[in-house]
Amino acid sequence: MIILLSNDDGIQSEGLTALDDALRSVADVYTVAPDRAQSSMSHALTLHRPLRVNELGPRRLSVDGTPVDCVKLALTGLLPVRPDLVISGINKGPNLGDDIIYSGTVSAAIEGALLGLPAIAMSLVTFKDFDFRASADFIMHLLGQIRQREIPPKTLLNVNVPPIPKGEIKGWRLTRMGKRHYSENIVERVDPRGGKYYWIGGDDLGFAQDDGTDGVAVQEGYVSVTPLQVDLTNFELLQNGQFPNFAWP
Ligand code: MN
User: Fold this and answer.
1) CATH number of the domain bearing residue 135
2) Domain span at residue 45?
3) Strand, coil or helix: what is 70?
4) Which residues, by Cβ under 5 Å, contact ligand 1, an ion?
5) How much is the pLDDT for 148?
6) Is residue 245 part of a domain?
7) Residue 36's pLDDT is what?
């Protein structure tokens, strides 16, 4: 198996190294990742300047661009082979519920899916004391399974692992995208020259306690696996006939 590995925390991130170390025993791993932290870049593509690629070692390339730049470059000419799978992570921090929309980690996997490959995004749900061992162990088991049961086209798996030792994790659940609550405050301050500046970032106020959602599964001590699709169409609205049907022109 050939795996393209990327992330949004940058090529030096311990989360990426942990994944690389684990996957090397079962696959040919090619790493193409941003040369610096690119969290919350979502699906940004760099179009207004050239991209530079640095070869840091065998099959290990950094790009001065976004996570999506990395995956797009890798799959459209940079790699000498076509991978079987794209994996993004392990992210240092959750990608649960609304986080998915902003996430560079998830977008790197989405780009893989858009370009026709099965893809997995992986995140460890903590902002401190990172221990990637349970996450690495889970991905190895997941890979063993999806060799037999393929990820459908235009689909990616968004995996979030609770920050507890493997022995305390209760198992895993197939989940849907939930609703995260953030406090919506922004910080307003004054710089040394008297100009105002703002800093985005709210406190995490937890999750809507809806059954079957990603955040609730992690909160209850399970690994959350959410199948995501690239097609954003609201099929329920399309099919239930409730959208106003009016004549125009
Ligand atoms: Mn990140």
Assistant:
1) 3.40.1210.10
2) 2-178+209-239
3) helix
4) 8-9, 39, 91
5) 66
6) no
7) 97
pLDDT of residue 183: 76
Task: Answer for the pair 131, 169: CB distance below 8 angstroms, yes or no.
Answer: no
**CA of residue 8 to ligand 1 center, whole Å:** 5
Q: In the chain, what is the straight-line distance between the N-terminal and C-terminal CA atoms, in Å?
A: 55
Give the residues across from 224 on adjacent strands.
160, 173
Distance from CA of residue 82 to its chain's centroid?
21
The answer to the question of residue 173 being in a domain is yes
What is the number of domains present in the chain?
Answer: 1
Tokens of 160: 């979030």
pTM across the whole model: 0.95
Tell me: pLDDT of 205 over 90: no
Helix (H) or strand (E) holding 241: none
Mean pLDDT of 77-81: 96
pLDDT in tens, 146-156: 876 789 989 99
- Cα 245 to middle of ligand 1, angstroms: 43
